[in-house]
Design a protein that fits this description.
Length: 593
């Protein structure tokens, strides 16, 4: 009742999540009112994330609480719902009747909270330019700026060890693959690439439909070209399951039994050779093969080998699904006929649970699994930011994303020829679906043709982009948002009448690495992004024209581009640093960030 009379926002009694958000919002408004009443010396800035935390914004405005507010949306409710359906979302944004569309989906009250929060805040921001464009049309307010999501790069940092960590994790994935494909493990694991996609089970939004279709085309392309490489594609998305399949458990048990038997025979043979060597005298024969393995050893080994026979194809899913016949991912895999046939160059494994080291089939945590793969594929149609490809980047794993994801847009603007750095961006904005699928399949095929040395070089380049995603850099945008909010709330405390372009700073472009043959000559005046303190230096008037990247000796390969980087500063109109009141900053988070 009070929320309706105050802000015109309905609150249906049967939506428990919304009602909890409303209670939380009233408590926040009450707290801010009390805090501001006692805080006489400092300006207070409160930042709210997502609609769940946004109820307090219209309340603070209506009650005239002396607090400066920022609202940041990480996605729009209506956008997520519309994209999940078969809608040409981005080409029809300006034509949607938002109230009607929200009403049809039963989220009108939530949409009202989100829109009310956006209009009540002093500063409205989003996490990416693609979400800013979406918010302008769906929430009817143009965002004041973009606050990209960052990562705690130090958590993932492995410096010189990340290649070793990749090798260790890959060996664990190899163990799973041996068990899953037992009896038909006729492909060379040294010539096998592991690709994966992961995230919430949003079949269309996360681009799983495009990923599976492109895998089918990749399979055809590799078979036509006579490639000796094999691709194992993992889909890691939680769905409703009953249990692990008997076949998945049996595969791991069979391989473990074979491994234990071989290890036991190996130890016995080692002992025999050692004992014979101790008693050996000149003129005696060395032990023959037939003397090393006993009849019992041969019988035991033969039993294990017969146990590895299978009459069916390796399964495409590791769990028993609750609704197998109607699962969109399984149905598309069947439609594309990716059944893990021995002649297929592309194998597929759907793991409908998040990864855990306690899993009896694939005992790995997500971070370890990512390190062990060769490439992440995230062909999202709706992805306001995209932490999964960002995490791949900081762990040195090349990834494929799209220009409809916030991360893809950010890297595309920041880096020229991003694929030279292991960031492949599929055009889903201007191309048709078929062309986008072909582009994705071609990216994956080109990756399979790289030599091991080229892949190592690319991983080195990818890992060195970590600094571009660090909160040390991204956090500066939050500082600027708070300054803009303070300027709007207390204009008399700032010099000048016009707001400076806080979000129109220097655009840094990482250029394409130049081709250069390997050479033992010393190089000087070189640096990596990790040595470059911050992109913010460009905003402070520092010239970056002479910053050149450093190329490690082990990267030198005549057939491969050396690691870049030339950072170019494209300067815009200068901004003045205002004299601001002392800030007390609060953060209200509605989505767990």
């Amino acid at each position: 009742g009070d929320l309706w009379s105050t802000a015109g926002i309905p609150s249906p009694p049967d939506d428990g999540e919304t009602n909890e958000a409303i209670v939380f919002g009233y408590l926040i408004a009450w707290f801010l009112g009390e805090y501001v009443f006692h805080e006489k010396d400092r300006a207070v800035v409160a930042q709210f994330h997502e609609w769940l935390a946004g109820v307090a914004l219209p309340l603070c405005k209506k009650r005239r609480i002396d607090v400066t507010t920022i609202f940041t949306t990480h996605a729009t409710l209506l956008g997520r719902y519309l994209c999940a359906g078969s809608v040409d979302f981005y080409n029809n944004l300006q034509y949607f009747d938002c109230d009607a569309e929200a009403g049809k989906r039963g989220i009108y009250h939530r949409y009202c909270i989100e829109r009310g929060a956006a209009h009540s805040a002093d500063v409205f921001t989003t996490v990416s330019h693609i979400t800013a464009y979406e918010s302008e049309h769906l929430l009817k307010r143009k965002p004041d700026g973009v606050l990209p999501n960052g990562l705690n790069v130090k958590k993932f940092s492995a410096t010189h060890e990340f290649q070793n960590l990749h090798q260790q994790a890959k060996l664990k994935i190899n163990d799973f693959v041996r068990g899953h494909f037992y009896g038909q493990n006729d492909f060379d694991l040294d010539k096998t690439l592991y690709l994966f996609t992961a995230g919430r089970y949003e079949y269309r939004n996360k681009g799983v439909d495009m990923f599976i279709e492109s895998l089918a085309r990749l399979n055809h392309q590799m078979k036509s070209a006579g490639s000796d490489m094999t691709v194992v594609a993992f889909i890691i998305m939680p769905a409703q399951t009953q249990s692990l399949t008997v076949e998945a458990l049996k595969g791991q048990a069979v391989i473990k039994s074979l491994h234990d038997t071989v290890k036991s025979i190996e130890e016995e043979i080692g002992k025999k050779i050692f004992e014979r060597a101790l008693a050996w005298h000149e003129g005696q024969e060395l032990p023959e093969d037939k003397d090393l393995m006993t009849a019992q050893d041969k019988i035991m080994l033969r039993r294990r080998l017969y146990a590895m026979k299978r009459n069916n194809l390796p399964p495409i899913v590791t769990h028993n699904m609750v609704n197998d016949a109607e699962d969109p991912i399984l149905n598309q895999i069947r439609r594309c006929q990716l059944f893990n046939h021995p002649t297929d160059r592309v194998k597929i494994v759907f793991h409908p649970e998040f990864l855990s080291s306690a899993n009896p089939v694939l005992p790995m945590d997500y971070d370890d699994f990512v390190r062990g793969t060769h490439m992440g594929v995230f062909a999202s149609y709706y992805e306001p930011w995209g932490y999964t490809p960002a995490e791949c980047t900081v762990m040195g794993v090349p990834s494929i994303t799209t220009n409809l994801s916030g991360f893809g847009c950010y890297m595309e603007e920041l880096i020229e020829n991003a694929q030279d750095y292991g960031i492949y961006i599929v055009d889903r904005r201007m191309k048709g679906v078929d062309d986008s699928v072909n582009q994705l399949a071609q990216y994956m095929y080109d990756f399979t043709t790289k030599s091991k040395r080229q892949r190592i070089n690319q991983r080195n380049r990818t890992e060195r982009l970590s600094d571009l995603l660090d909160w040390k850099r991204m956090g500066m945008e939050y500082v600027k948002a708070r300054q803009l909010a303070l300027r709007r709330a207390y204009p008399n405390s700032f010099e000048g009448d016009e707001e400076p372009g806080f979000f129109d700073g220097t655009e840094m472009k990482v250029s394409r690495p130049l081709s250069a043959p390997g050479s033992p000559r010393d190089r000087s005046g070189m640096m990596t992004p990790g040595d470059f303190a911050s992109l913010q230096e460009g905003r402070e008037g520092l010239s970056t024209e002479d910053y050149i990247a450093w190329k490690l000796p082990e990267e030198e390969d005549p057939d491969e581009y050396p690691f870049p980087l030339t950072l170019k500063a494209k300067k815009t109109s200068g901004t003045s640093t205002p004299t601001t009141p002392t800030m007390g900053v609060g953060l209200v988070n509605g989505n767990g960030y």
